Amino acid sequence: MTVNNQSDPEIHISEEKLQKLGWILLSLAVIFTIIGALVSPLDEQGKPVLLLPEVKAVEDYRRSAQTWISELTVLDGEIANVIAAEQQGDLFSQSRSAQQTLQHAVELTQKVDRTRVPPIGMGLHEQILSTTLSYLEAARSALQWISAPEQKNQDQASYILKDARQLKSELEKNKWLISR
After folding, report:
1. Which pLDDT tens digit goes with each residue over 116-175?
2. CB-based burial of residue 163 (10 Å sphere; 0-12 exposed, 13-18 middle, 19+ buried)?
3. Among 120, 129, 112, 115, which Cα is nearest to 53's?
4. CA-based nearest residue to 131, from 167, 99, 102, 158
5. Cβ partners under 8 Å of residue 57, min gap 6
6. How far is it, in rounded angstroms, from Cα 133 to Cα 106?
7. Which of 1, 2, 19, 127 lies in the 20 to 30 Å Cα band around 80?
8. What number of other Cβ atoms are within 10 A of residue 62's Cβ?
9. What is the pLDDT of residues 16-35, one digit of tens each?
C-alpha cells in the first residue's frame, strides 16, 4: 500500500492584487466615515449620539417631551385668550375658538398617552401626562365659561389654568428635559 502525500493546495495572490484590495478597503473606510459623520444624530453640543436601541428610545422620548412642552406653551396661550375674552365678538366665534382649543388639548393628551415610553422614562411620562391632563381640564373650563359666562366660571377657569402653569413650570425643571 502506497500513501500519497499530497499537500494542501496553495492559494497564490499577487502583490498587485493585494495592493488593489487594500486601496479599495481604505476607500470604503473613508467613504463610510464621511457618510457616518454626515448622517449621525448629534446632541446639543454637536457630539454624536450613540444609538444603542435603549439610548435611542430615551433620546427620542426626550425630544418628544420637549416638543410637547412647546405645544403646551401654545395651548396655554390659546386657553388664556379664551378666558381673557371679555365676551367680545359673537358667541359663535368665541365658542368655535374655545372648541378648537379643547380639541388641541385632547389631541396633545392623546399623543402623550399613546407614545411608547422607555422604562426609565416612566416618571417623566407620568409628570407630562399629568400636566397635559391639567391643561385639558383648563381648556374644558374655558369652554364652560364661554357656555355660561358667569364670573365664577371665569375665575374657576383662571384658577385651573394657573395650576396647569405650575405643573408645566415644574415639568420644565425636570433634569431629563434639560439640554445636556
Report:
1. 999 888 999 999 999 999 999 999 999 999 888 889 999 999 999 999 999 999 999 998
2. middle
3. 120
4. 167
5. 116, 118
6. 9
7. 127
8. 19
9. 888 888 899 989 989 988 88
CA 54: distance to chain centroid?
15
- pLDDT value for 39: 73
- DSSP-derived 3-state class of residue 153: helix
Residue 160 in grid coordinates: 385651573
Angle CA(130)–CA(64)–CA(176) in degrees, nearest 5?
70
Q: Which long-range contacts (CB under 8 A, 24 or more apart) does 52-57 make?
A: 54/118, 57/116, 57/118
Start-to-end CA distance of the chain, whole Å, equals: 79
Yes or no: say if 135 and 102 are a contact pair by the CB < 8 Å rule. Answer: no
Q: What is the mean pLDDT of residues 28-51?
A: 76
Mean pLDDT to the nearest integer, 58-71: 92
